[in-house]
Amino acid sequence: MINTNVVSILENKINIIKHNEEFIYLVGPIKLPVNLDGETTVFQWYCWLRCSDIDGDFCGDGSFNLEKIIERLASSNLAEMQQSSVLVYGDFENAEETLIRMHSICHTGDIFGSKRCDCGFQLKSAMKMIAAQGSGALFYLSNHEGRGIGLFSKALAYILQEDGFDTVEANLNLGFVDDARSYEDAIAVLKTLRTKPVTLITNNPRKLEALQESGANVSGRIPLWGDKSEYNEKYLETKIKRSGHFRGDLNE
Fold this sequence. Notes:
The chain has helices spanning about 5-10, 65-75, 105-110, 120-135, 145-150, 150-160, 165-175, 185-195, 205-215, 235-240, and strands at about 15-20, 20-35, 40-50, 85-90, 100-105, 135-140, 200, 220. By secondary structure, it is an alpha/beta fold. It contains ten helices and eight strands. It has one domain (about 5-240): 3-Layer(aba) Sandwich (Rossmann fold).
């Protein structure tokens, strides 16, 4: 039996989003103090989960029973799956000017600080840009590892890259498309949190197109290049020449 006090604490922190034929549970906001260059910056953190990822078939009609959800969390083995989340700063809902970034998880770059890519640099830089702007949101997309191929497949792709393949060739030769990422769930969450215009931090035209085609209120784009080194020079050039990324100053 679930403690009724636990239910009362949690119920006001869960929002249900209907997206196509699916339902998404959005949990938050949760205060998250973050260390940015030695200074504490307080963000508001949300996490989301598809109803279908919870053990059982009770979500088809969109009904919401928090006690039943809590009872089934332990048997759903969510630790074997990654859940996406969003880090919000300032008055994201109402601010006239705000920034967003759709950031694809990168185990090697974000966690280990790998120089084979620029992901860790982009993650921290985007957080700083959002804080400096005074309002914004960084979406951290967990099913985007290796442009959507997963961590194990990314490791195989790295081996091919060490033998001369570029990032696109490696993915294709493993049977994947160049970029398998979907932004649908993140966009549904964005539309729930804000309806006013947003400026997207990206060099990737596919991210911009995904937002525009979804009807999201996108007012513009700003680039995010930097941290070029001998280890990622080919990777960055491939983004431009093979994946069509907007050219920026790679010498930043």
